[in-house]
Amino acid sequence: MKISTKGEYGIRAMIELAARYGEGYVQSAEIAEARNIPENYLYQLLITLRKAGLIHSRRGPQGGHMLARPPERIQLAELVAALEGPVEATVCIQKQVTVDCSFSECCAVREVWERIRDATRHILENTTLADLAAREREKAETLASPN
Q1: What digits encode the pLDDT tens for the residues 97-118?
Q2: What domains lie within the chain, and their CATH numbers?
Q3: Is residue 86 helix, strand or coil?
């Protein structure tokens, strides 16, 4: 699995919203500046995240974007699915895709792809936005503290 720029930027934006959770709506310009994301590109990502039910958006001077749920209740798996699609390493293990492969019943490599998918899902499902925001704060504090 390779995370595209879309996924990377979308996850960065969501970590920013997690770090500011409870502060109200955050304007897209603030997110873009804090996370070094082109604002026009961010706008498209925020639409995707809103349609996926991960954020709420509001227009106007007091508007912006905020998480739809507490960061502890948003899994990284949800973000990756919304931004990137299925986690499968290859189409032959995607349930919703019918692949006409004459080796599907006896394919040994397919089992490896399934194990990779399962391990990846486990990690993504057990990592929340709160985990990522906390880890980022810890790293920033470590870098800021004198040795």
Answers
A1: 545 667 767 778 878 888 888 9
A2: 5-144 (1.10.10.10)
A3: coil
